[in-house]
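agent> step 3/5: call structure_predict on target 'DNA-3-methyladenine glycosylase' (Cavia porcellus).
agent> reason: downstream docking stage needs a structural representation; sequence fetched in step 2, passing through unchanged.
tool.input:
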Amino acid sequence: MLAPALPHLPGAGPGSPLNEMSLSLFLQKLSQRMGQKKKLAEAEQQQSPTDTAHKPSFKKPRLGPPLTLGSQRSIYFCQSPKDHSARLGSEFFDQPAVSLARALLGQVLVRQLGDGTELRGCIVETEAYLGPEDEAAHSRGGRQTPRNRSMFMKPGTLYVYLIYGMYFCMNVSSQGDGACVLLRALEPLGGLETMRQLRSTLRKGTISRALKDRELCSGPSKLCQALAIDKSFDQRDLAQDEAIWLEHGSLESSAPAVVTAARIGIGRAGEWAQKPLRFYIRGNPWVSVVDKGAEQNTQA
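tool.output (status=ok):
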């Protein structure tokens, strides 16, 4: 259930735990900056009362194909309802891993930061891990450890683990002991500015080229960086938590087909490395890895 190496938090290196204190300090400073921007905007609004009627209402950024990201509505998904009544409950997660992996596609993951900022993204790629029988799962053979305990907890429990000593991956437990679904990629919908700051700060080589929007969440550890997800989210209940939850987001009628392909980065899992347990939205530019062969076998 490993993912390719991705950017790390400054001060962390291979084989050493991620400095979560640095992440906490960064988020605190980020919240202060966002608060200052908000106060300046409010002050400008008070100085220009005649413009009050023209104040734009909040809308989620609309993403489109490359080169126009953030300027158009996504052609892949409908916009998600903004009220919390759209939140998915425990019953949604209480289904087998394969079924849940497919059902998660198109749903909207919401992360609320300490200052109230909401980061939103549609799930566009997942991987199913079936439990004790699955040679690629952390729970293979039915073994339970402090690290994988959340895989054996009730459906909807988050399983967040650290790989290579510096990168986090986020899973959702499903029906069946030791079974879960890895979230591999999101299509960003809201809070892109904050996502960019988080990714630029936490990724390796911050002095290199600027990130493209389609790179913000196109991988399991990338999306954790973009949403400020760390080990502290392990064992949280996605149906009840106040800082992260899932909302209903329906696929558009013209949405591309779901591609079924082999999972990524599990080459040592024998025959399980080739089992079609990865699912993604065909043609979506935010998918982490495209499988042309699998797409040819997918009926539109």
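agent> step 4/5: record observation. The domain at 90-253 is CATH 3.10.300.10 (3-methyladenine DNA Glycosylase; Chain A).
agent> proceeding.
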